[in-house]
């Protein structure tokens, strides 16, 4: 790889005698990673039995089998999430309390959100934010597929969120936009855009984002800061900025002892992934704890208003629930147009750009309820009353994921499974299942 001269000079200064080994790593094969979603799959997967585990993520594996890809039914069922192995090092290191309030501030496409969401087990509240709308839509799809019911997806600036949620969160993940030096092998565009000035401008943006993140953190709360760059200016120097400005405490990250320490005095608790030392692209992580007191978050006053539309939507949903689900949902129902959602907790989302407001239950169509795709991913398979059983390697599940009708001996709304995992909805009449798998997700 033809590396920029200034980049080579800076890397020599950073890692010294290891530089030649570092350069040789660019000639090795890129590592493909996949992570099991433990929110849905609790006992491992036989399909990954022969795959090498990722040392710093107990649920992560390296995959070289071309059959394990984005068209696999397990991906459609939200059991597998394809993720760069180094990026798996971050979310497991954020400490969690009993019912945590967590913010993933720069969240798309959703790797760290779905990973921390699985750890939270749908307890508490997870706000997953992405400032770019198209990327926020992809993030929302991944949240849906992962079965996260406690998650609100927003499309906001960090500054606007900071104005709303001062002193609110127990933990914040900031996987900050960066110069992407660690991704040169996978993303040649990052190589073409690189310059020293670019790294310095990224560092300024990272500090601004962290300034906003700090405002939203409770006293004693944690920020997990990460990048996919080697740049000292974007990594340890940014951490030092937060220590100097806010007296934050740099903490050890559990489970990452096999990774390289941070560079420079006082940065021993930071962690780095170098491709010549670990099977992954370049990555950096640091865990910072707020030590200073802050004003306590004051929740907004609840407006007790009668809403006939919501009452009617709830009635239609409960009629559906009684026939099709072995669970009773209660809480705060909200309508966005004709779309009915269940908020994870009462929270002020007024005047925020919200892409997904908790669990999407379904759509009200001409005074009837049609379940959302998210509702088919929200529970374990035994919650659904009518089920169509298929194997993950069968032609039937391929036909379903392609959007075709399939045969089944059930009546009415049903979920279609691949092995023991739900892929989506269908509606059966006369032994023919009409396909309700979303068109945007269908395989070609």
Query: In the CATH hierarchy, what is the class of the largest domain?
Result: Alpha Beta
What general form does the structure show? globular
- Our Rg estimate from Cα atoms comes to 23 Å
Secondary structure class reads alpha+beta
What would you say the CATH architecture of the largest domain is? 3-Layer(aba) Sandwich
Q: What can you see in these coordinates?
A:
With 444 residues, this protein is of the alpha+beta class. The protein has three domains: 88-289, Vaccinia Virus protein VP39 (Rossmann fold); 308-376, no CATH class; 384-441, Archaeosine Trna-guanine Transglycosylase, Chain: A, domain 4 (Roll), CATH 2.30.130.60. The protein is 27% helix and 24% strand. It contains twelve helices and 22 strands. The protein has helices at residues 5-15, 19-24, 73-76, 111-120, 133-146, 158-164, 188-193, 196-215, 236-246, 308-324, 373-376, 395-402; strands at residues 33-36, 60-62, 80-82, 101-104, 125-129, 151-154, 169-175, 217-227, 249-251, 260-261, 271-273, 283-289, 332-336, 339-343, 354-357, 359-365, 368-371, 387-388, 406-407, 412-418, 421-429, 432-435. Strands 4, 5, 6, 7, 8, 9, 10, 11, 12 and 15 form a ten-stranded mixed beta sheet that branches. The chain has a five-stranded mixed beta sheet with strand order 18-20-21-22-19. A four-stranded antiparallel beta sheet has the order 13-14-16-17. Helix 6 (158-164) packs parallel to helix 8 (196-215) and helix 8 (196-215) runs parallel beside helix 9 (236-246). The two termini are 34 Å apart.
């Amino acid at each position: 790889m033809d590396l920029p001269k200034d980049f080579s000079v800076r890397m020599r200064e950073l890692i010294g005698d290891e530089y030649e080994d570092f350069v040789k790593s660019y000639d090795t094969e890129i590592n493909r990673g996949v992570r099991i979603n433990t929110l849905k799959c609790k006992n491992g997967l036989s399909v990954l039995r022969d795959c090498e585990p990722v040392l710093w993520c107990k649920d992560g594996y390296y995959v070289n089998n071309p059959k394990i890809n984005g068209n696999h039914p397990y991906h459609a069922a939200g059991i597998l999430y394809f993720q760069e192995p180094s990026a798996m090092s971050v979310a497991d290191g954020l400490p969690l309390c009993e019912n945590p309030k967590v913010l993933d501030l720069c969240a798309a496409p959703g790797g760290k959100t779905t990973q921390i969401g699985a750890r939270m087990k749908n307890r508490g509240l997870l706000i997953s934010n992405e400032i770019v709308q198209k990327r926020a839509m992809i993030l929302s799809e991944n949240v849906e597929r992962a079965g996260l019911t406690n998650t609100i997806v927003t499309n906001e600036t960090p500054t606007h969120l900071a104005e709303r949620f001062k002193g609110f969160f127990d933990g914040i993940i900031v996987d900050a936009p960066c110069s992407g030096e660690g991704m040169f092998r996978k993303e040649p565009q990052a190589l073409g855009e690189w310059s020293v000035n670019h790294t310095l401008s990224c560092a300024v943006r990272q500090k601004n984002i962290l300034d906003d993140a700090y405002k939203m953190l409770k006293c004693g709360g944690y920020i997990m800061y990460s990048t996919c760059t080697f740049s000292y200016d974007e990594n340890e120097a940014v951490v030092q900025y937060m220590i100097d400005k806010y007296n934050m405490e740099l903490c050890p990250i559990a489970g990452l002892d096999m990774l390289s320490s941070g560079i420079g005095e006082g940065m021993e608790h930071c962690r780095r992934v170098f491709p010549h030392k670990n099977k992954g692209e370049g990555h950096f992580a640091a865990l910072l704890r707020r030590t200073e007191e802050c004003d306590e978050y004051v929740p907004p006053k609840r407006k007790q208003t009668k809403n006939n539309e919501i009452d009617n939507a709830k009635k239609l949903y409960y009629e559906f629930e009684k026939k099709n689900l072995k669970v009773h949902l209660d809480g705060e129902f909200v309508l966005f147009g004709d779309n009915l959602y269940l908020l994870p907790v009462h929270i002020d989302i007024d005047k925020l750009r919200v892409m997904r407001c908790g669990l999407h239950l379904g759509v009200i169509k001409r005074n009837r309820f049609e379940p959302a795709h998210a509702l088919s991913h929200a529970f374990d398979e035994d919650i659904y009353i009518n089920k169509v059983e298929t194997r993950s390697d069968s032609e039937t599940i391929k036909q379903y994921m392609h959007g075709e009708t399939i045969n089944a001996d059930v009546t009415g709304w049903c979920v279609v499974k691949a092995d023991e995992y739900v892929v989506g909805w269908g509606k059966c009449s006369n032994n023919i299942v009409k396909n309700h798998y979303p068109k945007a997700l269908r395989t070609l």
